[in-house]
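Handout, section B. The chain below has 696 residues.
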Amino acid sequence: MNDHFEVRNIGVFAHIDAGKTTTTEYMLYRSGSIRAAGSVDAGTTSTDSLDVERERGISVKAASASLNWKGTRLNLIDTPGHADFLAEVERTLGVMDGAVLIVSAAEGVQAQTEILWQALRLLQIPTVIYINKLDRVGASFERTLGDIARLLSPSVLPVQQPTYGADGEFAGIRVLWTDDADRSGAQDSSGGAAGAYSFPGSGDAGHGGDAGDVGDAARPDADDLAFRAAAAEQLAEFDEELLLRYIEGDLPERAELAQRIADHAAAGEMFPVCCGCSQRGIGIAELLDAMLAFLPAPAPKPGLAGIVFKVERDRAMGRAVWIRLYGGTLRNRDVAALHGRASEEKITQIRRLDGLKRVDAGEFSAGDVAAVYGLSDASIGDIVGDPDLVPQTPQLAVPLLTARVLPENDTDYTVTAEALRELTDEDPLLGLVFVPELRELHVRMMGAMQLEVLGSMLRSRFGLNVGFGPPAVIYKETPAQRCEGRVAYLAPKPCWAILHFTIEPGEPGSGLQYRSLARADDILPAYQNEVRRRVPEALKQGLYGWEVTDLIVTLTYGQSHVWHTHPLDFVIATPMGLMNGLAAGGTKLLEPVLRFRISVPEDNAGRVLSDLSRMRAEFDPPFAEGGRFLIEGRIPAATSLDYAVELRSFTSGKGMLTASFDGYQEAPPGTEASRPRVGISPLDEAKYILSARSAL
């Protein structure tokens, strides 16, 4: 088994309503961090602290808590399950040592489950899978395990199995990977023990009632042999020596198998599967044990390295910057330098989680997370120390909609802008666009639910009643053909900046690629670097007002003047040169596309197929399963914005649609979608130059 280190950081992930917050709540309860387990339905959970979370029974912000279990401190991060709040999940992924992915035994693997799984695998985060809600009508451990093996990974191994009473109802779980006595039983939903169980040697860690062992006899030989055979067969795929032993009929003992499972789980090659019913507290202690056994401790990196993954406001202390350290130590009064920033700031206080409370720590070291105060300029994604030691996080969250914010009164315009600036500091993907000359505010979002939550937060936190204009799909642009852009910025004096660009279409999904072929004798490297920095900013608004992407920009020639050139000249010239080229060659609109899965009663199949054709969907051959009609494919976001509501309506609430962002594709010819430009267009060179030089 993995040695017990001081701290581990574990993210809890799931599709919405799989029981993620309830599982976290019972972990805190079983460890003694809270006195009683709250209820999501009653709005009494400790990690759902926002009013909107308690009202709706969903998580919209990643919530942090800490617990002690058998000598190890676990920093837990309970992440939102709704697809609209995927940005919170994305920021959490990069700071985790391990993950618990929760799957409902009733609904099985869902769309958001697959998205989360792909991200966990991309970062190679060791993962324990927990099959929850085994007491639900229609729940099946075997069917859900089959879904996991088919849709997520075949390299899964149950290290626990459910037990059932004489009436066939779910009763408890049996742990397979240890040599301890059989532990199975059930707990009622009020937390009282009904055949409760505890781990031998767990001491007072469990607080779910008066613990009593259920069944002191050793696990039946048949179960022992079945688990050892299944584990050896799975492990043999990665271990040649074990394969030879397995062929010869030599099954290792459980202790050896458990160690090998832990090794391969830490390497992201094997995924232990646990089970239980969190709402009744069944399987929580065993899940915590499996987390210690199969999720590795952090390995400190040489040198100082950390990342800002969360920013929030503390009513008593002010702005808190949450940092995960991968190497080194930060202390009170240290001067912190953020990578790529010229300024340095002094840390005034460091606070660490103890349960749900924040306590003064004075310092924290590699492997830990803490709230750091005094870093007023730090933003989400900023790096402290060496950036090469910080893992890269995949981009999952892509805002698909934009909407105008409509304050209740004109007098609330300024205070609404300030409130949205603060919220954008905490969630940069809101992408607040502030147009002072038009007195307009625009925000971006993943979906309609996020817009509702934003309005609720503005009301409860800032006392502001705001409305929103109708959400519009966020399009993008890409060059229609290869083109050239040129600019000679030579007046009004003193100034001198000449730039020649070639602009070419790139591969779909490739984003922006930039390179320079200009000679240092013609344009100094310092000025070339200024151009490189300004190109992405200049492409934020194309000919139709949308971001330009999937293109290759090459600086082929440039010229600076030994006396007349100022670095600001290239700041002004770069957008003019690029827009000159795009105007010459034209751009094409790109529309966002969603990967969808629809499940409806078979009687509704014809209507769904007709609707999908009307919405320009592309889909795989549908299939029937258990009286349900299932269909998967891709669909434009623009044509399907309100379809989830429509689907629930004509299926009397029995239809379900799950969807996730799946990239951009070329919009059909004739699509008209543009938005007003913010600021002066670089195509109006004279006016743009005057504006850039603050001469308007």
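Note. The chain is about 25% helix and 30% strand. Compare this with the example in section A.
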